[in-house]
Amino acid sequence: MIKNRNNILIKTIRKNRFFQNRQGGTAVEFALVASLFLALLFGILDFGRLFFDWNKAAKATELGVRMAIVSDMVAVGLQDYDGLIVAGGNGLPVPVSAINGGQPVICKSGGNCNGYGFDQAGFDKILTRMQGVYPQIQAENLVVEYHHIGFGFSGNPYGSDISPNVTVRLENMQFNFLFPGLQTLATLTMPELKATLTGEDFRN
Q: Fewest Cβ atoms closer than 10 Å to its Cβ: which of 99, 123, 148, 159?
């Protein structure tokens, strides 16, 4: 009887020692805190990459539109556009509606710029300039627009009778996250980026 009581007492003491043992508690707490810290750190790094790439893409559009306005127009039919008849006389502005009904002429890779022809070499020149800043840009991401807003004059001896607003924009640019916890957003699409300048009155 006494022996059984002693055995029960010994087991109870051992059990209490097990539950009161604090060894290893610090390591468990560190593992929990460290995992949260690393997740936050890698998340910050990944989003930092996102904003860095976004900034590079935005800079690329600025350089692309500058290249577009000092080069031949991608829309071939606008390069030497003669608006003398629709303007009604030499030196007069070409009506806005004369160019694509007043809507922008949109040029995409492999397109025909709303029927105004397509200069592949000119398009590639703009693309190459932009890829020098942000190599991830592909031809299918680039859009070049020409929007006649009434600038220029008929009978211009230096080239086209219109000086349209030129817009270079990037669409459907993808960003890939590296951190496993964010890879569900691996196909994140960047917002559309664009830059606009008014075309030159003459071409170099």
A: 159
Please state the φ and ψ torsions of residue 174, each to the nearest 5 degrees: -100, 145
Amino acid symbol at 68: A
Question: Which residues, 6+ apart, have CB-to-CB distance to 85 below 8 Å?
Answer: none
**Is-contact 68 144, C-beta < 8 A?**
yes
Residue entry with tokens 């936050």: 40
B/e letters for 67-87, b = 16+ CB within 10 Å, e = fewer, are: bbbebbbbbbbbbebebbeeb
CA dist list (Å): 40 to 34, 37, 44, 164, 184: 10, 5, 6, 48, 16
Per-residue model confidence as pLDDT tens digits over 163-204: 999 999 999 998 887 776 555 656 678 889 999 999 875 443
The pTM of the whole model exceeds 0.85: no
Tokens of 92: 């007069």
Choose between 31 and 73: higher pLDDT: 73
Which residues are paired to 144 by β-bridges?
107, 168
